[in-house]
Amino acid sequence: MKNKEEKKINGDYTQLQTKILIRTAVVLFGSLVLVSVTLSLLSGRFSNAIVGFLEKIYQDYETALVVYIYLFRDNKEWFVVAAAFVSFLIILRLYLKGFTKYFNEINRGINALREENSEDIALSTELASTEKTINAIKHTLERQKSAAKVAEQRKNDLVVYLAHDLKTPLTSVIGYLTLLRDEKQISDELREKYVSIALDKAERLEDLINEFFEITRFNLSNITLEYNVINLTRMLEQLVFEFKPMLAEKNLNCVLAIEPDKMIHCDVDKMQRVFDNLLRNAVNYSYENTEIFIAVIQIEDMLHIKFTNHGKTIPREKLEYIFEQFYRLDTSRSTANGGSGLGLAIAKEIVMLHGGEITARSENEEVEFEVTLPLS
Fold first, then answer.
1. What is the pLDDT of residue 357?
2. Residue 324 — pLDDT band, cuts 50, 70, 90?
3. Where is average pLDDT lowest: 61-65, 148-152, 316-320?
4. Is residue 85 scored above 70 in pLDDT?
5. Angstrom distance (rounded) from CA 45 to CA 24
6. Beta strand 366-374 pairing with 357-363
């Protein structure tokens, strides 16, 4: 098992090792052949040919034989060594030249990474493991580049949405305050109306700013959860009670199904933010004169908290993006319903920090958000 893991980490270069072994054997064999040829040349017919050549020079066979013995036969070992050395250098040069192409291929692969070539990098069969590694690096760099572009776009979106969502209530505040300043003859009733509207818009402006600060804090900081054991039953009962005015405006009935004194381990403030957002979302998008149902079910060591309301069915393609920052079902970005499109994104961040998950389902004019949390 250990060898397999090491092989996986270091790469499988079996083919390359085999090729190196074969080429090494060829080098040794070639050297031996050249040495054998040299030995054969220094004896037999070649020696006779040398003696005959020397005899023509010295015009005496005995003298020619003595010169041959002195120059060649007595120095045969040196000739063998020289032949072996030369043959080794020649064959080694050819041997190394064959491996140079592998480094050239790897260099081309690295250059392709630098040039951001869209096609996968192809190397020799012997370098299959290196090819796989380089392509894995290439794909990782591409994903990182894509993620960086998305992050940059999100940052730009934050500026655009901030400007858009803050401008509407701010314009209203400025408009009504201007009316109060410019109109000299204004009734107390109208004055109270203008002040009330300006205050509502200012509070709306404050809520939006708080949401933007909140999502930025969750994205850019390392959030430390402050865990406590809390009574989930009482938390949800208190939440429903606080929403009574909002429920009354649309004549909604909120039903809570949970066992008495159900305890849970979580960060109270952050989890309360999640439940507040889900119930507010249910109220905003419910049909009038309908019922909102909150159910808490324990399955083994997981707790499932479901918020169900009756409203317009959310298309499946929109459900896939509903937890993304700035995403709103209201594409016109009207502030009549919902917030800036950050509430569900914040809720998802909080739930994930608790080791849980949040999902959404919608069909037959029914919308359900489910929060799953570990009990421990």
1. 92
2. confident
3. 61-65
4. yes
5. 33
6. antiparallel
Contacts of 64 (CB under 8 A, 6+ apart): 51, 52, 54, 55, 57, 58
CA distance 260 to 240: 15
- 302 Cβ neighbours under 8 A, 6+ residues apart: 372, 373, 374, 375
Helical H segments across the chain, by residue range? 2-10, 14-41, 45-58, 61-71, 76-115, 128-182, 188-220, 232-242, 244-249, 268-284, 316-319, 343-353
What the block records as the tokens of 4 is 């397999």
Q: Which residues contact 372 (CB under 8 A, 6 or more apart)?
A: 302, 303, 304, 305, 356, 357, 358, 359
- In the numeric block, which tokens belong to residue 266? 């979580």
| Rounded Cα–Cα distance for residues 341 and 208 (Å) | 10
Instruction: Give the number of other Cβ atoms within 10 Å of residue 94's Cβ.
Output: 13
DSSP state of 122: -
Both tokens of residue 301? 């060591």
CA distance 166 to 212: 10
CB 352 within 8 A of CB 344: no
Which tokens is 342 given?
A: 């950050």
